[in-house]
Design goal:
Largest sheet: 7 strands, mixed
Number of domains: 2
CATH class of the largest domain: Mainly Beta
Distance between the termini: 30 Å
CATH topology of the largest domain: Jelly Rolls
Protein name: Mannose-6-phosphate isomerase-like protein (Cupin superfamily)
Organism: Rubricella aquisinus
Number of strands: 24
Strand order of the largest sheet: 1-22-19-24-18-16-17
Keywords: DNA-binding, Isomerase, Metal-binding
CATH superfamily of the largest domain: Jelly Rolls
Helix content: under 10%
Strand content: 25-35%
GO molecular function: DNA binding; isomerase activity; metal ion binding
Structural class: mainly beta
CATH architecture of the largest domain: Sandwich
Radius of gyration: 20 Å
Shape: globular
InterPro entries: AraC-bd, Cupin_2, GPI/OXD, RmlC-like_jellyroll, RmlC_Cupin_sf
């Protein structure tokens, strides 16, 4: 399935661009901490693009990318994702549950708790982790900048060391090897080097006060802002001013324009709440919470509420901006 510009799509062709929440296929061995106690029950999903998974077992639902990747993480209560950093943008919104995000070399520089619908545009270049602090299984949806999502994950040294104690070794080729299964590093491939103390100095340690006002948007604030028009969430002129390689809008049943429209760029619809209907030249379909729909450039389509009641959606559009940014402000155009 390509993502080239098109004028029409059949029903089957559009369905191939939709990943339903109920069809998501998890990977429980996606990253180096998959055996580490406290992190060994998490599930990772790659929805659009290969993301940054380190496991050959990871299923990719849609391989072609629109300039960014879409993924998700599902975790039971008290399950933690270990401290890591990315070279490009990483944005999360909470689909379900209650989550604590923390950051810094040891995870104690700052933290924020996110509820359902909240969105966090995590600054590039800091170590970050997160855990489900709710009482039920929770899911967070992720947007990663760039077609290749920055070429992988940078782990805090203690994560690599802890993983080795539980049988997982990350090769310098970015692939995982499970010594519990008799696997070992191939000839000529060494282990992923641990960052030196000097290299660690390049990773900022921002406080909660540094991060939250500029990188977090709350669901109910966005609902209020989208009373008559979509709320601009991430972008150079948005609430969270940034240029991570994509723009993010928040729409509700009160702010969506039902008229058909056509774009020159890729658009991904990510339903947070309620049910929506997408209609295009060739068919129509409904989207439910957790569904992801990739609309190609050049396709005339409309998005409307499919049922009465509250509904909310994050809408992601590709841009020509670089797929990364700095802690101190938007990246250059």
């Amino acid at each position: 399935m390509g993502l080239d510009q098109t004028a029409t799509l059949t029903q089957a062709e559009m369905e191939a661009r939709i990943v339903r929440y109920g069809d998501l296929r998890p990977c429980k061995t996606a990253f180096i901490d998959a055996h580490t106690p406290g992190s060994d029950q998490k599930e990772n999903f790659t929805i659009i693009g290969g993301g940054v998974s380190e496991s050959a077992d990871q299923h990719v639902h849609i391989t072609d990318t629109p300039g960014f990747n879409i993924g998700a993480a599902g975790q039971p209560p008290r399950c933690r994702n270990s401290l890591h950093s990315h070279r490009t943008a990483e944005v999360f919104f909470v689909l379900s549950g209650r989550w604590r995000f923390f950051w810094g070399r040891w995870g104690n520089a700052g933290e924020v708790v996110l509820e359902e619908g909240d969105i966090f545009n995590i600054p590039t270049g800091i170590f970050r982790g997160f855990e489900n602090i709710g009482t039920d299984y929770g899911m967070i949806m992720a947007i990663l900048g760039g077609d290749d999502a920055g070429g992988g994950v940078i782990w805090a040294p203690q994560v690599i060391e802890d993983a080795a104690d539980h049988g997982l070794v990350l090769g310098e080729n970015g692939k995982l090897y499970d010594t519990k299964k008799g696997q070992s590093l191939p000839d000529g491939i060494g282990p992923m080097p641990v960052l030196s103390d000097e290299a660690l100095k390049a990773f900022p340690e921002p406080t909660t006060q540094d991060v939250v006002p500029n990188y977090v948007a709350r669901f109910y604030d966005l609902v209020a802002l989208s009373d008559r028009q979509p709320a601009r969430v991430i972008g150079p002129d948005a609430l969270l001013k940034d240029r991570p390689g994509f723009d993010v809008d928040f729409i509700t049943c009160h702010s969506i324009d039902p008229a058909p429209y056509t774009l020159d760029q890729h658009e991904v619809l990510m339903v947070q709440k309620g049910h929506w209907r997408v209609t295009w030249e060739g068919g129509t379909t409904a989207l439910a919470p957790g569904d992801t729909c990739a609309v190609p450039p050049g396709l005339s389509h409309s998005v409307t509420p499919a049922m009465t009641g509250d509904c909310a959606m994050y809408r992601v559009r590709s841009t020509d901006d670089p797929a990364g940014r700095t802690l101190n402000g938007p990246s250059a155009a």
